[in-house]
Amino acid sequence: MNTVIKRISEIEDAASSVMESANGKKKAFAEEMRERTKEFDQNLKERTEQGIQELRKRMEVEMDKRLERQRLDAEQQLKKMEQRFENEQEEYVEKLFGQLIKE
Q1: Is the dihedral of CA 30, 36, 39, 45 positive or negative?
Q2: CA distance 22 to 52
């Protein structure tokens, strides 16, 4: 009977040792997962921020191109209007003078 009790005690000690080892491994694994998650989150944040910055730069370049095209179009329109005025200035003056005289 003593040998049975002694054997059960040895088995309990071994089981406790296995449980302690498993708990230690479980804690170590949980800590490793926290660190990996933290690194992943940081990496994702950096990549996302980098992607946003690249998108912002592309949008700024595109906006600058559009603004430059609009500026050039406006200058071209203004030149056309000035040229037309120069070409038809006398006609405009005569019409305006004629309208002033009629009234």
Answers
A1: negative
A2: 44
> CA dihedral in degrees (70, 73, 78, 80; nearest 10)?
-170
3-state SS, residue 103: coil
User: Do residues 59 and 66 make contact, with C-beta atoms less than 8 angstroms apart?
Assistant: no
Longest dimension (CA), the chain: 138
Residue extents of the structural domains in the chain: 1-103
CB-facing half-sphere around the CA of 57: CA atoms within 13 A? 6
Question: pLDDT digit string (tens) for 31-84?
Answer: 999 999 999 999 999 999 999 999 999 999 999 999 999 999 999 999 999 999
The model carries a pTM of 0.55
Distance of CA 16 to the CA centre of its chain: 52
Structure tokens, 14 = 């071994």
**Residue 96: alpha-carbon gap to chain centroid:** 59
pLDDT band at 89 (very low <50, low <70, confident <90, very high): confident
